[in-house]
Design goal:
The protein is mainly alpha-helical. Among the domains are: about 170 residues, no CATH class; about 180 residues, no CATH class. It contains 26 helices and 10 strands. The strands form 5 sheets. Strands 1-2 form a two-stranded antiparallel ribbon. A two-stranded antiparallel ribbon has the order 3-4. Strands 5-6 form a two-stranded antiparallel ribbon. The protein starts with 5 loop residues before the first helix and ends with a strand.
C-alpha cells in the first residue's frame, strides 16, 4: 500500500484527487482515509481465525466448519484472505446471505402483502445471483411494472395486506435516501433543517395515485395507478396557508405533469375484466428512474452507507436514516469516494463489498492495542473493529454448522428426489423418513430441513416487526430457547458425524477442546480453556455423552458466539 503523509491524504481526499480510476485500489483508499482521521493508535490486523469467522458470517451467513477452519489456518499463502473473499463471493451462499440481509433491511420483519415471502426471497436472491446492479434492483421495487399481482414491488409496498401511500413514501425516504421524514409529514422537521415537509410530499406525490384494485373476473387484488390529476396539496400545522408540490425527489427538479382531455389518459383503457389499463403517463416508473439515477448522489451515498454498515457494524452516517448536515459522516471524503466509485462501477454490490472486505479497516481486530484508553476509542473512528450482533438467520445457520446438523439437514430430501433402494419398499422408505424427523422419546416431529429449522430461530431471535435491527438485543427468550428447545437439544446428541459424535471419538481433553472450540467459535482454545474442559469431563465422568453436549451448549449460549467479532 502506498503510504502518504496524513495532510496529503486528507487534502487529496477532500479534492477527490485520489481515485481508483487513477490506479489506487479502493480498499487502500479506505485505509488511508480511516488512518488519516484515526486520532490514535489502530488495532492490529485480526488473527486468521477471527478473520475467517467474520468474513464467513458476512459473506456466507454462517460459520466455517472445523475442517474448513483447520485448512485455512494451515494455509501459508500470503494472498489467502483475498482468495477466500473471492471464493465466498462466488459461492451459492453469497446471494442467499445478501437476500436475507436486504430483506430484513427493507421489510423489517413485516408480514403480509399479496406476494408470498417465498416469491419475494426467490426474486431477490436471483437478482444478487445474477449480479444485477443495485440501482436496477431498487428501480424494480419502485416502478410497479409487469404483472401487478406478481411484481416484487407489491411485497415492498404492501403492509398488513394494505396499501398506505404515506407509509410507502416514508419507507422510500428512509431506505433509499437516508431521510427519516416521520416528523416532517405535518410540518418541517422540528430539529433537522434539511428535512422539509415538501420533501415528504414530493415523494408522496409519486405514490398517491396508486391503490389496491380488485380484478372483477379473477377477484385478484392488484396494485395499479390511476390517472394523475395535478400537484399534491398539503398544509403545515404551523401555517394557515395551503401548499402544493409536484412529484419530486429531494434535491431534484419537479416532474412536469402533462394534461389530458377526459378519457384520453389511457393508451389501453381498463376493460370489463377489471384490468387497470395502460396509462400514457405514469408516476411510479418516474420515481424509480429519478431516485436511482446516477445524478442522485443521495441515493448512491445512502446505498454505500448501508452496505458499509452491513460489514462494519456502523454507518459512516449513523443512524442510517438521518443523513443531514447536522449529522455529518464520520469520514465525509470517504463517503464521497465510495459513492463516486459505486456509481463508476455501475452499482456493483459484489465489487463494493469485496473492496471493503479487502481493507485493513474491515480486517482489524476487535481488541484495542495494549495500553489504549478504551474510553477514547469511539465506534465511528473504526480504530478497532466494531462488534456486530448476529442476525436471527446467522444465529440459526451458525448453530446448525457448529453442531454438525447443517449437512445432516441438507441431506433430508423428499422421497421422490432420493435414489431408490431395491431392498426397500416405498412404505418402508416413508416410515424411515418419518422416524428420521422425530426427536427423542417425546415423539414430536422436529424440522428436517434447513429452511424449517431456520424458521424456528427467526421466530425466536428476530426483532419486532417494523423496527430496524441495528443493535445487539439479547433477551431471556433467547437463552431459554437455546436451553430448552427440543430441536437444539436433539442436535447436541450424537448422530452420524455431528459435533458430539465427533467429540465422543476423541480421548484427550486437548483434542476435545480443540475440536469443540474450532467447531463453535472458529478458534483454538487457550490453556485455561483446555483445563476447564478437562476438569468438567472428570467431574461428569459417569455421563460423558451428556457432559460433551453440555460443553457444546455452553459455547453456543455464550456472547462470543452471538456476536460477529
Amino acid at each position: 500500500m502506498r503510504i502518504l503523509p496524513t495532510a496529503v491524504v486528507l487534502l487529496a481526499l477532500s479534492l477527490g484527487a485520489i481515485s481508483s480510476a487513477a490506479g489506487e485500489a479502493t480498499h487502500s483508499e479506505i485505509d488511508q482515509a480511516i488512518t488519516a482521521a484515526a486520532g490514535g493508535s489502530l488495532a492490529p490486523i485480526a488473527s486468521d481465525a477471527e478473520f475467517l469467522r467474520r468474513v464467513s458470517l458476512d459473506f456466507a451467513g454462517k460459520i466455517p466448519t472445523s475442517a474448513e477452519a483447520r485448512q485455512f489456518l494451515a494455509d501459508r499463502d500470503a494472498d489467502k484472505r483475498a482468495k477466500l473473499i473471492d471464493r465466498l463471493i462466488a459461492a451459492p451462499e453469497f446471494p442467499l446471505r445478501l437476500e436475507q440481509a436486504v430483506t430484513v433491511m427493507l421489510l423489517e420483519r413485516r408480514a403480509g402483502g399479496k406476494i408470498s415471502e417465498g416469491k419475494w426471497r426467490d426474486w431477490l436472491r436471483a437478482q444478487f445471483a445474477a449480479s444485477r446492479p443495485w440501482n436496477e434492483i431498487v428501480h424494480d421495487l419502485l416502478a410497479l411494472e409487469g404483472d401487478p399481482t406478481a411484481t416484487p414491488a407489491a411485497k415492498f409496498m404492501l403492509n398488513d395486506e394494505k396499501y398506505d401511500s404515506q407509509k410507502v413514501a416514508h419507507d422510500v425516504a428512509r431506505f433509499f435516501l437516508g431521510m427519516n421524514l416521520q416528523c416532517a409529514q405535518c410540518h418541517d422537521h422540528p430539529t433537522v433543517k434539511g428535512f422539509a415537509q415538501a420533501d415528504f410530499y414530493g415523494i408522496y406525490a409519486f405514490l398517491a395515485q396508486t391503490d389496491m384494485k380488485p380484478n372483477k373476473v379473477t377477484k385478484a387484488i392488484m396494485l395499479a395507478e390511476a390517472p394523475t390529476t395535478g400537484k399534491i396539496e398539503f398544509k403545515s400545522v404551523f401555517k394557515p396557508e395551503k401548499e402544493f408540490t409536484a412529484p419530486r425527489v429531494p434535491g431534484a427538479e419537479d416532474i412536469a405533469i402533462p394534461a389530458f382531455a377526459p378519457g384520453e389518459e389511457y393508451e389501453v383503457k381498463p376493460d370489463k375484466s377489471g384490468l387497470p389499463g395502460v396509462l400514457k403517463f405514469r408516476l411510479q416508473p418516474l420515481l424509480a428512474r429519478e431516485l436511482t439515477s446516477d445524478a442522485n448522489r443521495r441515493f448512491a451515498m445512502n446505498s454505500v452507507n448501508r452496505f458499509w454498515f452491513l460489514l462494519t457494524g456502523r454507518g459512516l452516517v449513523h443512524p442510517l436514516d438521518m443523513m443531514h448536515k447536522d449529522n455529518p459522516p464520520s469520514h465525509p471524503a470517504l463517503l464521497d469516494l465510495l459513492a463516486n466509485e459505486f456509481i463508476g462501477h455501475k452499482f456493483d454490490v459484489r465489487w463494493l463489498l469485496r473492496e471493503i472486505a479487502l481493507s485493513e479497516t474491515y480486517q482489524r481486530s476487535t481488541r484495542a492495542p495494549s495500553g489504549t484508553d478504551l474510553n477514547s476509542v469511539k465506534p465511528e473512528s473504526y480504530r478497532v473493529a466494531n462488534l456486530k450482533p448476529l442476525s436471527a438467520e446467522q444465529i440459526g445457520a451458525a448453530t446448525m454448522v457448529a453442531t454438525g446438523s447443517w449437512e445432516l439437514l441438507g441431506k433430508a430430501a423428499p422421497v421422490a428426489e432420493e435414489e431408490p433402494n431395491a431392498q426397500e419398499t416405498k412404505k418402508e422408505k416413508k416410515q424411515k423418513d418419518k422416524a428420521r424427523s422425530r426427536a427423542d422419546e417425546g415423539g414430536k416431529e422436529l424440522p428436517t430441513t434447513r429452511e424449517d429449522s431456520l424458521a424456528a430461530f427467526v421466530k425466536t431471535f428476530a426483532g419486532p416487526a417494523g423496527e430496524p435491527e441495528v443493535e445487539f438485543a439479547p433477551s431471556m427468550a433467547h437463552s431459554l430457547f437455546l436451553m430448552n428447545d427440543r430441536m437444539v437439544l436433539a442436535w447436541l446428541k450424537p448422530s452420524a458425524n455431528n459435533l458430539t459424535a465427533r467429540l465422543a471419538k476423541l480421548s484427550g481433553a486437548a483434542e476435545i477442546a480443540d475440536e469443540l472450540y474450532l467447531s463453535v467459535l472458529t478458534r483454538t482454545p487457550g490453556k485455561d480453556e483446555i483445563a476447564e474442559v478437562e476438569n468438567f469431563l472428570k467431574k461428569h465422568g459417569t455421563d460423558r455423552q451428556q457432559a460433551l453436549g453440555d460443553l457444546a451448549w455452553a459455547l453456543l449460549a455464550s456472547a462470543e458466539f452471538r456476536l460477529n467479532h
